Amino acid sequence: MIQSKILHVVRALLSYMAPRDTARPMTALDALTQVSKLPTVDETVFKLLVQTLGVLPTGTVVEFETGEWGIVIGPSENRAAIARPRIKLVADRAGQVFAKPKEIDLGAPSQGRRFPRIVAIIEPSRARFNVTGVLLESAARRDFSLRVKERILQVGFVMILALLAVVLYNDLAKNIPAGWWPF
User: Fold this and answer.
1) What are the residues whose beta carbons fall under 8 Å from the beta carbon of 45, sequence distance 6 or more?
2) Other CB atoms within 10 Å distance of the CB of residue 88
3) Which one of 5, 63, 150, 182 has the lowest number of neighbouring Cβ atoms within 10 Å?
4) What are the helix (H) ranges across the chain?
5) How far apart are CA 50 and CA 66, in angstroms?
6) pLDDT tens digits, residue range 45-58?
7) Taking the domains of the chain in order of start, what are their residue ranges?
8) Which of 54, 71, 74 is nearest to 62 (CA)?
9) How far is CA 108 from CA 29, 85, 111, 168, in A?
10) Contact at 8 Å (CB) between 85 and 76?
């Protein structure tokens, strides 16, 4: 079945990118390289997966040879350019975040124009900007106003408080003798 072959490839990829043991996780590029070497992986399914997702998954923070940083927002419109995704440039070489990030498709440069090469994949924890915020704005295809950004932060804070209340209630209910707790 094709579904089982797809799941096998995805599971193999995840086992390298998010291992269950104490092994160090690999970058997406290294994990794809390792999965491509596995004899049990169907070559056609692997190629389709890479063409669909691209070599660098959405959300990957990358550094260019110019020193600028960007976030992968999807595969290139050019299906043959699997190693050159669509990028949202977020920070300049000095680390200053652009007020209006620019979106570029590395796989489809305009006539006579050459885009810089990706030289490094950056861990999201080292990013100098809010990766999730940039991805949400890319998905919405517009910049959120300051008021919307504040509301998103407030909702997140309320959700954290609600989670704290549930965990606290469960701990108290578990440790108090039966019959004493009125709920």
Assistant:
1) 2, 5, 6, 8, 9
2) 18
3) 182
4) 2-17, 28-37, 43-53, 131-140, 146-175
5) 26
6) 888 887 777 777 77
7) 1-53, 57-143, 145-183
8) 71
9) 21, 9, 9, 53
10) yes
CB-count burial class (<10 Å; 0-12, 13-18, 19+) for 9: buried
SS3 76: coil
Distance of CA 154 to CAs 15, 29, 165, Å? 35, 36, 17
User: Which residue type sits at 93?
Assistant: R
Q: What is the Cα Rg of the chain in Å?
A: 22
How would you list the strands of the sheet with 61-64, edge to edge?
97-105, 86-91, 69-74, 61-64, 118-122
- Please report, as a single letter, which amino acid is at residue 104: I
Residue type, 183: F
Contacts 24+ apart (CB under 8 A), 35-43: 35/9, 38/12, 40/8, 40/12, 41/8, 41/9, 41/12, 42/5, 42/8, 42/9
- What would the pLDDT profile of 3-56 be if each residue is shown by its tens digit? 888 888 888 888 888 888 888 888 777 888 888 888 888 888 888 887 777 777
Give 103's strand partners: 88
